[in-house]
Design brief:
- The chain is built from four helices and five strands.
- It is of the alpha+beta class.
- The strands form two sheets. Strands 1-2-5 form a three-stranded mixed β-sheet.
- β3 and β4 form a beta hairpin.
- The longest helix is centred in the middle third of the chain and has 20 residues.
């Protein structure tokens, strides 16, 4: 039977159709001290591999390519997964290389997008998403989801790639060209 046939039948009979689903996150049996609520055990995982290019004369860092590898359970919507993974990667690139909130004497000096730099399409690298599809038995249709995990691992991946390229370990983000240049100069690399 086709969807069109079902729809026409319901329409002719003036019947409403409703689908409802619920998912309760499974929790561990043992309470962890000083934590609110029971810990759940369905976690999303993600790995980022990045290729960066650093201008050794200016400290400018460009992310050229990102491979995003989420363990998200069964993929239910490939385009949605890729959009989430790409969006999180770009957010992480912004956090790592561009976005700086400056405060002086308790007053925000970063007041608008003129001096709070966000990555644009120009700074967006090639991003490839390769999902690890291990169905989660407790998840709806085997899915886990990826949520916020898409932004987190790209930050240390970029910082480590920057270290591999320059030999300097930055301890303050964002890794602006000025900070990278200053760190290379302080360590006698340039």
């Amino acid at each position: 039977m086709t969807y069109a046939h079902v729809y026409n039948h319901l329409y002719e009979c003036r019947k409403n159709m409703k689908v409802e689903g619920h998912f309760m996150v499974p929790t561990a049996k043992k309470q962890i001290g000083k934590k609110a609520g029971m810990p759940h055990y369905v976690y999303g995982y993600l790995t980022h591999v990045v290729l960066v290019e650093v201008d050794m004369l200016t400290g400018e860092t460009d992310v050229l390519r990102v491979v995003s590898i989420p363990d998200c359970g069964r993929v239910l919507n490939r385009q949605g997964l890729e959009g989430q993974a790409e969006g999180g990667a770009v957010m992480g690139i912004g956090y790592t290389l561009y976005e700086d909130t400056v405060m002086e004497g308790g007053v925000h000096r970063t007041t608008n997008f003129t001096n709070y730099i966000l990555p644009t399409f120009k700074e967006t690298p090639i991003i490839e998403t390769i999902p690890v599809e291990e169905a989660e038995a407790s998840g709806p249709y085997g899915a886990k989801g990826i949520g916020e995990v898409v932004m987190i691992p790209i930050i240390p991946a970029i910082v480590q790639a920057l270290y591999d390229a320059t030999g300097v370990r930055l301890r303050h983000l964002p890794a602006t060209p000025e900070r990278v240049f200053r760190a290379m100069k302080e360590q006698g690399i340039i």
